[in-house]
Design a protein that fits this description.
The protein is 73% helix and 5% strand. By secondary structure, it is mainly alpha-helical. Bound molecules: fe (ii) ion (FE2) (2 copies).
Length: 211
């Protein structure tokens, strides 16, 4: 968490507060790297190149644990409800759209896991369903992350107080401990680096297309 918001508390004093949304933005960068892995793996598979099913299996595990249960868990169970308490409407506003997209993401991952199981049991026709679901997830999450980074999180930063931010960061730590567990964060980062290497993706970092 490198970025801080400067809060002017008096004419002279300026203090730094750590924003909860910065933690989530950092996770977005990790999720975007996995999205790049999925896109490259899908392109290769479509061209008839050999892609070990393990690549997609690892992606499914990462998405379900890191992206959905942990990251979306932080958003749905802590950030969004607090934003709502601070006056941002859930049902008609952007929060409703975000929740709907989390659900759509789950459907793509379910489709991907099912197609992968068919593929591994020898059904080669499952290949197109793998590509379709992997790309569907990648496109959905790419624009979802863009909207959160540029629209929803800035809305949150405006309405959340310093103690709100502190409270959220504490809850995030608890979610990480309970869902991901000790050492697992590093495990997933290593997994992504290995997949990038395996697929010839250079540099690791993916620049967000919209920027
Ligand atoms: Fe989200
Ligand atoms: Fe997010």
């Amino acid at each position: 968490m490198k970025n801080y918001k400067l809060l002017k508390i008096s004419m002279r004093k300026v203090i730094k507060i750590m924003l909860a949304t910065e933690n989530l933005k950092e996770e977005h960068q990790v999720i975007l790297r996995m999205i790049k892995v999925l896109i490259v793996a899908s392109d290769k598979l479509e061209k008839g190149e050999d892609v070990p099913p393990e690549v997609f299996k690892k992606a499914v595990d990462f998405i379900r644990t890191f992206a959905d249960r942990c990251h979306h868990g932080k958003e749905q169970d802590t950030l969004f409800p607090l934003m709502e308490e601070r006056g941002i409407l859930r049902h008609r506003g952007p929060i409703a759209v975000m929740l709907m997209e989390h659900e759509q993401g789950r459907q793509f991952v379910k489709g991907l896991a099912e197609a992968l199981a068919r593929y591994q049991s020898g059904d080669k026709t499952a290949k197109s369903a793998i590509v379709e679901n992997a790309r569907g997830y990648a496109e959905l999450l790419d624009q979802h992350i863009y909207k959160e980074d540029n629209i929803l999180y800035p809305m949150g930063d405006k309405v959340l107080s310093q103690s709100d931010n502190r409270e959220l960061l504490e809850k995030f730590e608890k979610i990480e401990r309970e869902i991901i567990g000790e050492g697992k964060h590093e495990y997933y980062l290593r997994m992504i680096s290995e997949l990038e290497k395996e697929l010839g993706i250079e540099g690791g970092k993916t620049k967000h297309e919209h920027h």
